[in-house]
Design a protein that fits this description.
The complex is a heterodimer of chains A (about 525) and B (about 200). With about 525 residues, chain A is mainly alpha-helical. Chain A is built from 16 helices and no strands. Chain B has a single domain, classed as Cytochrome c oxidase, subunit III, four-helix bundle (Four Helix Bundle (Hemerythrin (Met), subunit A)). Classes of the chains: A mainly alpha (about 525), B mainly alpha (about 200). Chains A and B meet through helix 7, helix 8 and helix 9 of A and helix 1 and helix 6 of B.
């Protein structure tokens, strides 16, 4: 396809392939179509997960039973956790925006293994289906929480096997995506794009790829051990057979802490792109951004113990894990400083994605600082397993990854769909969403600090006021979410046509038409300049 | 299906992908090695006596079988490079045969344990104490997982041999054979670790 054509190439949305209708999507190996398959499935499951969260918050509006029994509540927070963690925030940014933009941003026509990429999506759908089946088949839904802690995970009569195996399959999908991206970045960068001429979003995906590849197998084998424990009574984690439940926690968090960096690194990469584009200025401290990305990925492997400060570990282990946890804060803070410095003396263009990025920095900092409080040993004993922890990780996971996801969505929407969205409604949606977010999760810091435990459907009367505010916040948040999604969907029909570079971005995706042609580039570009070349 | 382009082939990319996949396999078993070390440390005596019950003879035979099969598949790559299709197919045939031989040995070995009521969840095993329960639990879990990898490898190599037969894999396009060789070496390598852990360290 090296020949030049006089007529414009059809966009990936109009392209007629071998298959018709829906099959032209679910059999497509085009990275852009696969990205949209992921986007559609992730948003659908996100609505399910968010609705579960909304119902849980409604249960907590008053002490005692409001709308559901304790057992239903247990099942709800389990499914909410599994869906949100394994099916949304872990694949979220890499599978949707990584798939769509990684090849384009490094000047390639597709990922290294397009068919493997499609298989990853099939595995993803299979994994989520297994998790959903666990809700309806067998003796009642799983009720262990998304962490599947031993020994309860093989003692409960809940239908654990499909849920655990579903999480295993989702992990496999994640590994294959990471593997694909790593090879793509190593082998398919456009001529002249040296490592230090690569934009920061691909860099973030590169670091994420390694974490996906090297951490996910650990949870894979751990979940298989739980499956074996339930079916064959092997005794890995069963104290009555000589096993050690604490070992399960170690293995689980050996993956699940690095998984937090699978969630946040691509988010940071997307924010870096947005910051540079809307400040019309090269990113401040590009090399530091690269190094801090890799540092976060690396140090992230050695901090899992901070999830287990109260589980019983030697004091040497406690001090080490606490120290390493504080160390992770340094590269994260470098990123925040560099984003702020990028804005300094830039020509800032106040657009919706930029507002999202600002909101991201704010909630990410609140989440980060509360993480330091949890990382210090003495405070952790008081705050462990309280709503403080719930608030902390929702600020990081939902606030961090979620805000970056919506920021990226508003940033790349014109590129992906070829349409502009209604900016006014997008901004209103953001404000409502942000207010709802703070109202929902803010009071949880206070509630947790006062001692309200997590994962209970009931609470003491003293926590009533905070919970009412929090529940009201969930309504506002949900409305904000509805405004954002409805605005984007209605823009698909009514939006004005987007130019190839509506924001004045400098990375490669803005040099090709919106929406991109099937082959991305008619001619593979040769790179001579850095990624953020503003003069 | 968007691929209207000429078929793009990048052997180095395929091999890089395979190596990355092998890393994940190593970590998959790595998790089990961690569990093994923890429980060996806690139940040193029980692991010692349980390991003495396993037949070092069968274990050694199986190790030799896998080592030879690894060398035959490596030689088949050279044979393909030298355009000697028949010899390559013969070597791959030997590899597949040895893979089956390994599984047959393993079948009789497992069968022997099960006849003596030594398997996860058995009440006879439970009476022997927690160390033995953990040793045999790990033994069965890890060797069965390894055997599953042998079976996957055999299927993979079987497909490859058909492709060689139909001239889909030739002297200038043999990355699939190389990748299946890499996978087979990994399966071999894991056994090289399993063998001392369960049979030799007493």
């Amino acid at each position: 396809m090296s020949t030049q054509k006089d007529i414009a190439e059809p966009s990936y949305l109009e392209y007629k392939g071998k298959y018709k209708g829906i099959f032209s999507w679910i059999f497509s190996t085009d990275h852009k179509r696969i990205a949209l398959l992921y986007l559609f499935s992730i948003l659908s499951f996100f609505i399910v997960g968010a609705t579960l969260g909304l119902l849980m918050k409604f249960e907590l509006i008053a002490p005692g039973k409001t709308i559901m029994t304790a057992q239903t509540y247990n099942a709800f927070f389990t499914l909410h956790g599994i869906i949100m963690i394994f099916a949304i925030v872990i694949p979220g940014l890499p599978a949707v925006f990584g798939n769509f933009l990684l090849p384009i941003m490094i000047g390639a026509k597709d990922v290294a293994f397009p068919r493997l990429n499609l298989m990853s999506w099939y595995l993803y759908v299979a994994g989520v289906s297994l998790v959903l089946i666990s809700q309806f088949a067998g003796q009642g839904p799983p009720d262990t929480g998304w962490t599947f802690y031993a020994p309860y995970s093989f003692r409960t009569t809940g239908n654990m096997l499909p849920a655990v195996f579903g999480a295993f399959v989702l992990g496999f999908s994640s590994i294959l995506t990471g593997l694909n991206f790593l090879v793509t970045i190593h082998r398919m960068r456009a001529p002249g794009m040296t490592w230090l001429k690569m934009p920061l979003f691909p860099w973030a995906l590169y670091a994420t790829g390694w974490v996906q590849l090297l951490a996910t197998p650990i949870i894979g084998i751990t979940l298989l051990m739980v499956v074996a424990e339930r079916t064959l009574h092997i005794g890995f984690f069963d104290p009555t057979l000589g096993g050690d439940p604490l070992l399960y926690q170690h293995l689980f968090w050996t993956y699940s802490h690095p998984a937090v960096y699978i969630m946040i690194l691509p988010a940071m990469g997307a924010i870096s792109e947005i910051m540079s584009t809307f400040s019309h200025k090269t990113i401040f401290g590009y090399r530091f951004m690269v190094v801090s990305t890799l540092a976060i990925a690396f140090v992230g492997y050695f901090v899992w113990g901070h999830h287990m400060f109260t589980s019983g570990m030697s004091s040497t282990a406690l001090y080490t894990f606490s120290l390493l946890t504080f160390l992770v804060a340094i590269p994260s803070a470098i990123k925040v400083f560099n984003w702020i410095s990028t804005m300094h003396q830039g020509s800032i263009d106040l657009q919706t994605p930029f507002y999202w990025a600002i909101a991201f920095i704010f909630v990410f900092m609140v989440g980060g600082f509360s993480g330091l409080i949890l990382g210090s040993l003495a405070a952790n004993v008081h705050l462990h397993n309280t709503h403080f922890v719930v608030a902390h990780f929702h600020f990081i996971v939902f606030g961090g990854t979620g805000f970056a996801f919506f920021g990226a969505m508003h940033y790349w929407f014109p590129k992906i769909t070829g349409k502009m969205y209604d900016t006014r409604w997008a901004n209103i949606g953001l404000v409502v969403f942000f207010v709802g977010f703070i109202t929902l999760y803010g009071p949880m810091f206070y509630l947790g600090f006062k001692g309200m435990p997590r994962r209970y459907y009931d609470y003491d009367e003293v926590f009533h006021a905070g919970n009412i505010i929090s529940t009201m916040g969930s309504w506002v948040l949900y409305s904000g979410l509805a405004i954002i999604i409805i605005n984007l969907i209605s823009s698909l029909k009514g939006g004005s046509k987007a130019s190839s570079d509506p924001w004045g971005g400098k990375t490669l995706e803005w040099t090709i038409p919106s929406p991109p042609p099937v082959e991305n580039f008619t001619e593979i570009p040769t790179i001579t300049k850095g990624p953020y070349d503003y003069k | 299906m968007s691929m209207t382009t000429v078929i793009h082939r990048d052997d180095l990319a395929s091999k890089t992908g395979m190596w990355l996949f092998l890393f994940t396999e190593m970590l998959l078993f790595g998790g089990l090695f961690v569990v093994y070390s923890v429980y060996r440390y806690r139940n040193a005596m029980a692991f010692h006596f349980a390991a003495e019950e396993l037949s070092v003879f069968i274990g050694t035979i199986n190790t030799i079988i896998l080592l030879i099969s690894s060398s035959t598949i490596a030689m088949s790559i050279t044979a393909i490079q030298k355009k000697n299709k028949k010899f390559a197919l013969l070597l791959i045939g030997i590899t597949i045969f040895l893979g089956f031989a390994f599984l047959v040995n393993k079948y009789f070995e497992w069968g022997g344990h099960i006849r003596e009521h030594i398997y996860p969840g058995s009440s006879v095993l439970a009476l022997r104490g927690q160390g033995d329960v953990l040793f045999y639990g790990l033994y069965f879990f890890m060797t069965v997982l390894h055997a599953l990898h042998i079976i996957i490898g055999l299927v993979f190599i079987g497909v490859i041999s058909v492709k060689i037969f139909r001239d889909k894999i030739t002297s200038d396009n043999y990355v699939l054979l190389e990748n299946s060789g890499l996978y087979w070496h990994l399966v071999d390598l894991i056994w090289i670790f399993l063998f001392p852990l369960f049979y030799l360290i007493t």
